[in-house]
Amino acid sequence: MTSRNQNLPEPAVGNTFSSAVFPLETMDVPGGTETVLRGGRHLFPLLPTAFAGVRSIGVIGWGPQGRAQARNLRDSLAGTGIRVTVGLRPGSASAADARAHGFTEADGTLGDWLDVTAASDLVILLIADAALAAHHERVFAALKPGATIGLSHGFLLGHLRSLGGGFPGHAVIAVCPKGMGDSVRRLYEQGAEVNGAGINSSFAVHADPDGHAVDRALAWSVALGSPYTFRTTLGSEYLSDIVGERAILLGAVHGLVETLYQHHRIAGADPVTAYERSCESITGPLARIISRDGLRAVRDGLDPAGRDAFDRAYTAAYRPARDLVAEIYDEVADGTELRSVILAEARLTARPMTRIGGSPMWAAGAEVRARRAGRGTAVDPVTAGMFVATMTAQIDEFAERGHPWSEIVNESVIEAVDSLLPYMHARDIAHMVDNCSRTARLGARRWGPRFQAAYQQIALPAADAPADPALVAAFTAHPVHEALSAAAKLRPSVDIAVG
């Protein structure tokens, strides 16, 4: 396909990098190789060396990522002399929970966010995107000379670019876990029993005045428990991350299950069966197959009739999904989507978002989850075809825009099947959308209905026609299968435990 526009990410310098501290590996990907770091607790003794010049780490914020990262860093650095402190804004409702998890004013590990910023060698900014956009100047002004700014999302870079501004003259690094904060903590805890269990992370070095930024970022990722760390750029990260959560990770999957639930109900299915063929099929068997055996295994595991239904659904959904992913990408790249998040902040204070979990389909979820024991859920071929088509559409859009393969497969596939979908399986998709970060929730609510309309009005009617053999052939021979196979070699032999 030809490029839709010129809103390409920064060149991904992340394909290769070197470390003076950590042993690195080379991973074969379509068209070349990428350098990656395989994590694990055996690397913890190297952390003090890699955190060169860092004796104090300030984690600013106690949202899902802050809550997980502060605890992981503290536990990994125990006994090293490197102190982890949580910084919160005055009157923060999160202070009690931070104290409950061992961060207290009494021992100096909990304090005012600007005081913690001023005292820290590495300042990890994990407050909400809109709040960071509003208050970044105060944070920058509080930084001590030589401090490193740490981010887990590139949103602030996009905001600064929209203002024509930039970061101060400090080192700027990012470590971006490819999963929700709850997964970051739960898999880290499981890593005590299975070395390497954790959530994959990308890292970026945006500014490196002292030459130690790469190893500092790698140390942060290792301390979080990441089993697989790859390099990208901060600009490429925020484009892929924000697009992904509006597409296959949240927005598209919500629009898809709403569409398919209604489709099955109209066809005569009872509510529980319709829920099983839409939500349960995606969050259960589809997620497990893709996680363990890759995308192609979904189609290969169907009988001939199921494969025909998969192919028809896949080719009907691919083009409308690709068009929407491209539209989202354009709006993230030109700043429209970021501005919408910032503009919503003041409005939501007076008028909070309603919860999507009130629509009728979600009432069936509790019964489905209650009767799972001893009952397997089959892959619904129409659901599978439309879901895999949307995932492939995002993969193709990211590849066309120049993202590295590690970023493509993590943002489009691995984060979904190893972090988000298992959580949705335990809670349900509506719960996930209603309880994710404000940036993600706004995006899912904006784009989920757009995907739903495309599936209802374009894809489902077209799924009655014969499959497009060219699109099917492109899928079966897709280079993503090679990339996923390479990434699978770095996957720890443990799934996230969601209670």
Spatial arrangement of strands, main beta sheet: 1-2-10-9-8-7-6-3-4-5
Question: Overall pLDDT, averaged?
Answer: 92
Topology, number of strands: 10
Give the N-terminus to C-terminus distance in angstroms.
43 Å
CATH topology of the largest domain: N-(1-d-carboxylethyl)-l-norvaline Dehydrogenase, domain 2
User: Pairing-aware structural class of the strands and helices?
Assistant: alpha/beta
**Uncertain stretches of 5 or more adjacent residues:** 1-9
- The CATH superfamily of the largest domain is known as N-(1-d-carboxylethyl)-l-norvaline Dehydrogenase, domain 2
Total helix count? 21
CATH architecture of the largest domain: Orthogonal Bundle
Radius of gyration: 22 Å
Query: Percent of residues in helical segments?
Result: 55-70%
Which CATH first-tier class of the largest domain would you pick? Mainly Alpha
How many domains make up the 3D coordinates? 2
Q: What is the general shape?
A: globular
Major sheet: size, sense and barrel closure? 10 strands, mixed
